[in-house]
Amino acid sequence: MKDTYKSITKPSPEVLFKDRNSKFFGYAFPIKTEEEANQHLESLRAKHHKARHWCYAWQIGKSEDDRHYRANDDGEPSNSAGMPIYGQIQSFEVTNILIVVVRYFGGVKLGVGGLINAYKTAAQMALESIDILTRTIDELFVVQFDYPEMNKVMQVIKQNNLNVIDQKLELDCKIFIAVRKKDVEEIYSKFDSTYKVKISKLKS
Fold first, then answer.
1. Residue 65 in this model has a pLDDT that exceeds 90
2. Residue 15 has pLDDT above 90, yes or no
3. Does residue 203 carry a pLDDT above 80?
4. Which listed CATH number (1.20.58.1480, 3.30.230.30, 3.50.50.60, 3.40.350.10) goes with 4-134?
5. CA angle centred on 69, ends 64 and 70, rounded to 5°
6. Residue 54's closest CA among 68, 29, 71?
């Protein structure tokens, strides 16, 4: 079971590729939703309001089962811009990412081959300019118990180096944990078999 994915945590710096007077500005953004992608696109359209094309591709989804993508040529010849950008997303094996390449036309037509190379190269430069991190795919759980069971619960958390993301210690106790996908069954079993401790899965 593959339970890791690659992504970025901050926007890339602006990169520039030139070919026969046309300028191609490349950007990469971390995203989790299509709405976030659209917001970045609107910002770039405002920033580069004199540009000719704002071509892009994005991919969302941590696991391979739930990934989806979109590629847009934005007026360039079919498959000459969006898919070459998406090809770099695939090549670098990144997800939860948007790559935009903004073109200023330089007066000389590049042909489909030239466009494919330019959009691919600008996307590649954007990806090479930013740190790509490998992360684990985690599932979220809440562990519920009364105060006398605190030591038992904390012992399991400490022994398994679990990531506590929140806790509510009121009349009863709730600790919210993130568990790496491959360890879910083992960790669930440990809490589930502990006397007076209840564990429930949360929606991610």
1. no
2. yes
3. no
4. 3.30.230.30
5. 170
6. 71
- Looking only at the bridges linking them, the beta strands covering 133-136 and 68-72 are unpaired
What Å distances lie between residue 130 and 29, 36, 63, CA to CA? 10, 19, 22
Residue 203 and residue 135: Cα distance in Å, rounded? 19
Most distant pair of Cα atoms in the chain: their distance:
76
| One-letter identity of residue 50 | K
What's the CATH class of domain 137-201?
alpha beta
Could you give phi then psi for residue 104, rounded to 5 degrees? -105, 120
Question: Which tokens go with 84?
Answer: 């070459």
Amino acid at 166: D
Classify strands 97-104 and 133-136 as parallel, antiparallel or unpaired: unpaired
